[in-house]
Amino acid sequence: MRRGRRPRWMIKIALERMEILLQRAEEEFALHPERSHRYVEMARKIATKYNLKMPSSWRGRFCRNCNKFLKPGSNCQLRLKDSMVNIKCMECGEIMRKPYMKEKKAKRRSKIESRTFQEGTDA
Ligand SMILES: [Zn+2]
């Protein structure tokens, strides 16, 4: 098969399929973790085939080393360090880092919101 750029519609379908697989992985994890790992593998295969990145919303939800689906408190550990989250895969021991600025920003926003709310009720 010819290598190189794929048509846009094909990439769109590939992204959708990856999203579905990862959602399934999340749903199935409680009962069938081995299925979740399989879904991650399938999603990663699609990513490689179409030269795509895994959806950013799922970053840190699977191990880049052993491709296992990761569920905090179940088979991975989260540690906050500075503005990074260290994610340790309990399956193979791999440690991944990801910035948690998004979460931080959201927290700051909710703090500001609750403060303005309190000021309003106090008066
Ligand atoms: Zn791992």
From TrEMBL:
Compartment(s) of residence = Cytoplasm
* A biological process from GO: tRNA 5'-leader removal
Superkingdom of the source? Answer: Archaea
> Which cofactors, by name?
Zn(2+)
Write out the GO cellular component annotations: cytoplasm; ribonuclease P complex
Q: Which reaction does it catalyse?
A: Endonucleolytic cleavage of RNA, removing 5'-extranucleotides from tRNA precursor
Q: How does it assemble?
A: Consists of a catalytic RNA component and at least 4-5 protein subunits.
What this protein is called in its record is: Ribonuclease P protein component 4
Q: Which gene encodes it?
A: rnp4
